[in-house]
Amino acid sequence: MVATSSGSAVVDGGRWIECTKASDLGCNWLVPDEQQGHATRGRCLPDSLIRREPPADDTIAVEKLVATAVDLRRLTYQLLDLELPISPFWRTDGGLAFDLLSSFSSGEQIVIGHAGGVITIDLTESLDAYRESLRVRLGEPYRTVLGHFRHEVGHYYQNLLVETGEGVRFLDECRALFGDERADYQAEIARHYKFGAPDNWSDSFISEYATMHPWEDFAECFAHYLHITDTINTVGEAGLVLVAERARVAVPRDIVPLASYADVPIEQLLYDWKWLALFFNRINTAMGKRPLYPFEIPPPVIRKLGFVHKVIRQGALTAGALNSA
Hints:
Layout: E1 8-11, E2 14-18, H1 22-25, E3 30-32, H2 45-48, E4 50-52, H3 59-81, E5 97-101, H4 103-106, E6 113-115, E7 118-122, H5 128-137, H6 145-161, H7 171-178, H8 185-195, H9 214-238, H10 266-286, H11 299-323
Parallel strand pairs: 4-5, 5-7
Antiparallel strand pairs: 1-2, 2-3, 6-7
């Protein structure tokens, strides 16, 4: 974080200016001064990833775009923090792009999803009543716009880091854990919405939606990994520690969040998270709200999250080349 003067700041001898979306999207990111006239049009990285957005005269949709762009910036910050490769659509064919559109005000059907690097989000999901009605109707314990971003970007990174290039060395292991992604996607969707998830789905999956198709299982686990790592990173940034001897329940040891879990087994991350989530849930219920973390992680899902953890760490090794290309 840096303080600005008249919308600019000097960082390491270079001049940085506010993102051109500062006024209409409330962006607080800075861009290098020399980026003026660049393909990004002076936008910061996350805002430059927006390929399509509502027209300026659609005031209802633009209002929702502001809140959604905050979530996009949070997503991008975490991807950078994890050192994942981000190759924008304006730099690379099939690169990462976001179409942030509104079915509510435009009247057109907007389908949330990912295709060829383009992630489409319906801004109507930022309406609490609409999103909550879908959450209840679809039996989802958790549904947020940030969750949609994390799920859909999981599809992008499965294609980038597992199904193409050097990542294909992980493909057999991925199929062994999640299933064969070559299964007919449309047929699996039809099956899921006709019959629902199997009765014992919670023994092997993180959510009912994950049972639909191997692609959805991977994306749900990828999103879940981002949920956990971002939350535990926030705890660490705040300096919060769970001190065993001061807790009124039997905590086996102090829980001190690491600055990074990149080089430790997934089990260590999940162990720390289990105890922190226990108390986050109690805080929420003390306020009369649903548990913050309404999930159980069975052993098969631990192995899936471990795979995601490994793929992300391997992806970080190639991020430098892709991000500077």
